[in-house]
Design goal:
Layout (H helix, E strand, L loop, with lengths): L3 E12 L2 E12 L3 E5 L6 H8 L7 E6 L2 E2 L5 H7 L1 E4 L11 H13 L9 H5 L2 H10 L15 H13 L5 E5 L7 H14 L4 E5 L3 H7 L2 E6 L2 E6 L1 H6 L1 H7 L11
Parallel strand pairs: 3-8, 3-9, 6-7, 7-8
Antiparallel strand pairs: 1-2, 1-4, 4-5, 9-10
């Protein structure tokens, strides 16, 4: 096991002459919860799209557990254990919560195309699926049609379907976006719980969530790394405060 589960070296992405991500060196320690923050348009989503192979880099490299994965197919990277939650948020709205988690388990078993297999063979996955629902506190919703679930609980289901793939590293894209306080608190606790024995990289706008949850923070602005450190270090950095003026006030997130 490498000290850093994920590393980028000089990661760069240009779109028709516009540099969206410029020479980003990112190091995520194994077992850490690492946040990527920055004002809108800073390049956070592009970095995520590069990491998960939705986009090829213009230059630079990506290492996962010490191996260069810059040019490999998205599915291969996912099988290594780096999974972006909400990339499969193809939770199926008309299926029950339990059925959705079961599909996640099928993916891992490589039987995703065997929908014609008897329901019996799927029942074998029920125990494992229920255990995952218990882990994300959704047991009481097992038979609920997903579309009818409250928004915050849908996010918990997305995390459960990601966990079904047994990721070593989870990439969470704005996990608390659009949520009220109670849902946010629940999702923060959930992320803390699922981070045991795995590494997490998250893009998050809500700075009090970041302050609460993350071991280390990288601040991006205009596609480049502006600062990196603990929340305490980053939130006092004059360059960071300046970058955030007029958007989320980073100094207020403590309170």
């Amino acid at each position: 096991m490498s000290e850093f589960i994920l590393e980028t070296r000089g990661l760069t992405k240009e779109f028709k002459g516009f540099v969206a991500v410029s020479s980003v060196d990112l190091k995520v320690r194994t077992g850490h919860i690492h946040a990527l923050i920055g004002p809108n348009g800073a390049g956070k989503t592009t970095v995520f799209n590069l990491l998960t192979k939705f986009l090829p880099p213009t230059s630079g490299s990506i290492l996962f557990d010490g191996k260069d994965i810059s040019r490999e197919a998205p599915a291969v990277t996912a099988r290594r254990g780096m999974v972006r939650s909400f990339q499969i948020s193809a939770t199926f709205p008309n299926l029950t919560v339990l059925e959705n988690v079961r599909i996640g388990l099928q993916r891992r078993l490589g039987t995703e195309f065997h929908f014609w297999r008897s329901a019996k063979s799927l029942d074998a996955l029920n125990g494992e699926a229920m255990a995952l629902l218990e882990a994300v506190d959704l047991t009481q919703f097992a038979d609920t049609v997903t579309a009818e679930m409250p928004y915050g609980r849908k996010r918990a289901l997305e995390i459960a379907t990601t966990l079904a793939l047994e990721p070593r590293m989870m990439l969470l894209d704005e996990p608390t976006q659009g949520m009220g306080g109670e849902d946010i608190a629940r999702v923060v606790e959930l992320i803390r719980k699922v981070s045991v024995n795995r590494s997490i990289l998250m893009v998050e706008h809500n700075l009090s969530v970041v302050a609460n949850l993350c071991d280390r923070i990288t601040v991006l602005t205009r596609g480049s790394v502006l600062a990196e450190g603990s929340y305490a270090e980053v939130s006092k950095n004059p360059k960071v405060l300046e970058a955030y003026v007029g958007s989320d006030d980073i100094a207020d997130a403590h309170h």
